[in-house]
Structures are given as structure tokens and as C-alpha cells.
What we know:
CATH architecture: Alpha-Beta Complex
Number of helices: 11
Structural class: alpha/beta
Number of domains: 1
Strand order of the largest sheet: 3-2-1-4-7-6-8
Shape: globular
Strand content: 5-15%
Helix content: 40-55%
CATH class: Alpha Beta
Order of helices and strands: EHHHEHEHHEEEHEHHEEHH
Number of strands: 9
Amino acid sequence: xxxxxxxxxxxxxxxxxxxxxxxxxxxxxxxxxxxxxxxxxxxxxxxxxxxxxxxxxxxxxxxxxxxxxxxxxxxxxxxxxxxxxxxxxxxxxxxxxxxxxxxxxxxxxxxxxxxxxxxxxxxxxxxxxxxxxxxxxxxxxxxxxxxxxxxxxxxxxxxxxxxxxxxxxxxxxxxxxxxxxxxxxxxxxxxxxxxxxxxxxxxxxxxxxxxxxxxxxxxxxxxxxxxxxxxxxxxxxxxxxxxxxxxxxxxxxxxxxxxxxxxxxxxxxxxxxxxxxxxxxxxxxxxxxxxxxxxxxx
Length: 298
């Protein structure tokens, strides 16, 4: 099984100047490093899909040990550069390029064990997120504000119709045809609403959660494909949440994911730094030295 990761730098850089980006992102560098190093610990083939800036940062400067690098995401900036809130497009474009089974692992997710039990599954997702109010709010607002809404999202699934969705922190599988259709539908969803996307800025609406995770969930349901989850499906929105952040039990959990704003919390960032220092001290030292010398440029 191939592990893939993606980094589209534009959403990071579009709202900050270079010096601000450098000063605010020491934690990001450590998170990226721990994620790929953990993946390489369990899988021989870990590939990166990024743009020119991402390659300069992650490969040329930090020398992260990807087995192959694809510089292909600059085209997204050319077309979608003014829409810096569409951060999931880099992931979806990366899925669309795959022609063999894969797992895409977010840069803030850390594999703790091989995902052996899921290698033969047609479709895999990290976990199932039950509606906590925000997903349903996203759907309601987007249906009012967008001109095009894919029919597949008007689902009759009791499990999905309130906005509940599979989390794509780790996503993949063997059904490449499904992912091709999913990615094509997702880009059609975005492209048919370009004239309205700037109206979403400043509002508390997570459009990427809908054109990635919710669309993925609804399309799988429509096609009758069972989605295997790395975590058991919970009864409430918070049942599985704590286990995603459990660095203290990293010998027993399958993976850790600093979901959402948890990647910004000081306590979690200290745990990332501590884990990187303990497990991969040479990379910890390299990042600290380059950061302190202000050698990191983007």
C-alpha cells in the first residue's frame, strides 16, 4: 500500500507575509516532519504532492524523507488563487491523480501502527463524525448561498442527512474508480460556484468539509459502497474524539490526528515537539537550528 501526503502552500501564504509565516509556523514544520517520519517507519513508499514552495520548504530545506515528490499543485493556485479558503482542493486533486491503492494521510496525522486490516478495503476513512450542529449549519447555509448543489448531496440516508460525515484525516482504499468519480464531482461542485465563493469569506462556513468529506460520504452511500473506518463508529459526536489526541497511549492507538484547531493548542504542540525529539532527534535538531538561524524561507 502506498502512503501519500499533500501540501498546497497557497492557503497558508495568501493571508500572511513571509516573515509572519516563518515566525508562526515552527510548530507546522515539526508536525509535518513527525507525520512523514511516522509514515516512513511503517511504510516503504511515502510520496508527496505539492507545489514549488512546498518542495522548497519540505524537501530542499527540511530534507524530509519522501520516496518521491510530485510538484503539481501550482496549477491550483493559477485557477483558484483568490479563494484561499478552499484548502481541501490540494487533497482532492492529489486523490484524482492516483491509479493504484493508497492512503492519504493529512500532515497533522501520525500513524502509530501499520494499517494492515484496511489494505484490501475498497474505501477507508479515518472515522465517522456525527453532526455536532456545525455540519448541519454548513449544509443549510450553503444550500441558500450557492447556485449549484450536486444532487447526490440531497441524500435520504438517515445516517448522513443531518450533515454527519466521514472524516478524511486518513482516507483511501482500493476502489480507484470511486475516487476518480468523487474528485470529478467535487471539482464540478466548486467550479460551478466560483462566482459565489467570495461571499463565503468571513462567514463561519466550512465549504471544504462539504465538497470533500460530505460529498465523499454521500457518494459512497449512493453507490452502495461500505466505508471502513479506522475508528469504530461512535454513538455521540465526542465518543472517539479524545482517542484522536492520545499521545500518551501512542503504543496502543492506531493513529493520532490533531483535528481542527487542536493543532494550534500549545499543549498539543509541545507533545508534537517532544515526540519528534524522542523518536527522530536529528530532524528535531535540524528544524530548531534552521528556525533559529532564520534560514527557513518560503
